[in-house]
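Quick one, T. Sequence first:
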Amino acid sequence: MTDLATMLSAERLVDLTQPLGPATTLCAGSTPFKATTLAEYDSGPGYLRELQVPEHAGTHLDAPAHFSPHGARVDAIPIASLVRPAVKLDVRPWVNGDPAALVDAAMIRELEDRDGVIEAGTAVLVHTGWDAFWDDPARYMGDPGPAFPGLARDAAELLVERGVVGLGIDTLGVDPGSSTDYPVHLTTLPAGMWHLEGLIELGRVPARGAWLVAAPLNLVEGSGTPARVFAILPSDG
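Structure tokens:
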């Protein structure tokens, strides 16, 4: 059995979280991030700020309630569902830098043929390669309008069929940037799945064998919240 110190050694931990601050790329229409300093060391014993930040900012979690009236809000998501075996789908060969690319069920099945069928209870991480642009707002979000890869409806339906607990992606959203009807959100969230959007560093996560840890704020009535997300690599990863 692997001891805890070995499992949590620095070389086995991968931070999948963007820095959150004024430079973080936000979805169109979001209120800008703002941090107001309320106390400084030179005027008192400590340092303190007040934050203004959208629920869906940077690397963040979507609760089922985001698109499902009867879905769980952030504070009702069971903590056990946020620590899950990770399945990574490396779809970069299909996306190939195309902001209009759609990840469909056929691609997922091809990867399953190679790496094994996606098991129920896992968290699926979709690696499009778009995290390479997270600090380039025009490329990451699209200019002049939202443009980035996402999943197709049949891919979402397949993941629900597989019994996946959570879905993560390295773009601003699980639906493509051009979407106006959000079929993936409307398929997965009502099924009870949560989302992680805005992930980075998925290139360091293997197709199978890692664990995902998502640590959102325990935000009362939240539709979503910024989250710290990391992977624990397998001992041979």
